[in-house]
Amino acid sequence: MDLGMILGLVLGVGLFLYALLSGGVSLMIYVNIPSVIMVFGGSFSALLMSNPLNRTLSAFKFFMLTTKVPVLETEKMIRVLVEFSERARREGLLALEDNLQELDDEFMRRGIQLVVDGTDPEIIKSIMYNEVNQIEERHAANIKVFEDWGKYGPAFGMLGTLVGLIAMLANLQDQSTLGSGMAIALITTLYGSMLANMFMIPIAAKLADNNKTELLSKEIAIEGVLSIQSGDNPRILQEKLIAYLPPIQRESLRQEANKD
Asked: Which of 51, 83, 96, 110 is such that its CA lies 20 to 30 A from the CA of 5?
């Protein structure tokens, strides 16, 4: 469970409601059903038009991904790759096949299998990077759903405001309705901004961050697989791979290696 995402969402909504209530007015003055329909319904309809139906309807599933911390054990992956490199230098590449089923990472396992099968390095590189590109494209398409919704929300909020202003100006002779009419017109802008900045834009940013984390693990796997095939010294391989990690994690792995 990603506590940062959950805490941010709860804190954001809570502080927003507190700010509304601290104005000394009833919370119900911020509730307007036509405005809700125009902003949320209108922006969702635009989302349906600009994205495939199955992807749009999967938006809730994509959101749930942001509530989970990506389980990517990069340090463990580096240790495994270094161990495979040491064994390959001692016993040859074919010896790696005995340990393939021990690998939890399917992407790395397929890469090592290609090495064991004697596949050309350029072909391995092409296959693995092609898979990474496909993953990135799928993630980008999912992120786009929330980026689009984040754009449509304020747009429909402004549209609702214009509709409210037109209705208000059409009834200028009744001065008693001007204040309430202006308030209703502005509520749609409030809804649109809230939809975008409190929900859609942060969700898109979180998915983009998770995407970077996953792609980093793929880069480490590719670098390790290609280095094993080329017969790099295990220490050189380790230095190549720990360059992807933060300084604290690098020192931890180096100390482990020195103890061994």
From this structure: 51
